[in-house]
Amino acid sequence: MPKKHLKFNWLFILALCWLAGQLAGQTVQDFIKSGDEFYSQWEDQKALDEYLQALQIEPKNYEALWKTSRSYTDLADLVAGQGKEVEARKFELYAKGETYARQAIAVNPDDTWGHFFLSASLGKKILLRGKKEQVDASKKIKAEMNRAIELDPDNDLAYHALGRWHRQMAEIGGAKRALGSLIYGSIPKGSYEESEKWLKKALELKPDYINHHLELGRTYVDMKKEALAIDEFKRCLELPETCSKDKILKAEASAELEKLNKKG
Questions:
Q1: Under 8 Å between Cβ of 110 and 133
Q2: Where are the beta strands (DSSP E) in 56-174?
């Protein structure tokens, strides 16, 4: 073999050895820290890759498990478009988020984040299925939200989720609820007042979070409080973006404002 080829092979082998040494030297906490850095830069896929690397080293690491669930759920939220293929992709990602959240709870049932991300991933996955499946899962989803709040009364995202849950249940009202109960079984009750209460609690804890304002605005629309809804949607547009989903949420707030303006 020519000397220059031999030299190249040795350099290649040395580079591989160096890379293997670097990887071997990285701990679970190194990968989690790196994932957190990508997450703070809105690089959700890169964050997920780091958390999965951590789980390769320590499959039952609670922090890596719930953050992996969060990443899959966030990535599903970012899937754009409509149609069966889009829904299938979102469902797949939410299902993975649910799986990792359940694993996190199995490792540590006494922390808020495993329960919250189970409620988030399961709740969003079920919305892509039929009404009966949504009704069947609704009590379980609410129980996970309540458990997340019980474990951390300052978990603003759990209050947010509870507010949305109440609005969705309130939308099934009167004769529709009675008919739905005959078809799907017992439907849990919710109210717009409870939705408003819990979304305002979320805002009390995190006043600059765009999604809290967006969902409170939607609750006000359902309550026929258009002036308050407009205030919330305008606030969405004024606030700076703080996460990867905020651009989408601002566009939704703008669309809600346009609908109200046409109605007015």
A1: no
A2: none
**CA dihedral of residues 218, 221, 226, 230 (deg, nearest 10):** 20
Domain of residue 91, CATH code: 1.25.40.10
Are the CB atoms for 77 and 245 separated by under 8 Å?
yes
What is the spatial distance between Cα 99 and Cα 141, in angstroms, rounded to a whole number? 14
How many domains does the chain contain in total? 1
- Tell me what the mean pLDDT of segment 213-221 comes to: 98
* Maximum distance among all Cα pairs of the chain, rounded to whole angstroms: 86
Q: Give domain status of residue 225, yes or no.
A: no
Q: Which residue has the tokens 């026929």?
A: 224
Residue 105 lies in a domain: yes
HEC-encoded secondary structure of 200-214? HHHHHHCCCCHHHHH
- Backbone φ, ψ for residue 185 (5° rounding): 100, -175
Which pLDDT belongs to residue 16? 55
Global pTM? 0.84
- End-to-end Cα, the chain, rounded Å: 82
If you search the block for the tokens 């629309």, which residue do you land on? 221
Q: Is residue 1 part of a domain?
A: no
Exposed/middle/buried for 128, CB within 10 Å: 0-12, 13-18, 19+? middle
pLDDT digits (tens, 9 = 90+) for 150-175: 999 999 999 999 999 999 888 875 54
Tokens of 239: 């606030």
Chain-centre distance for alpha carbon 253: 18
Pull the structure tokens for residue 82: 């409509």
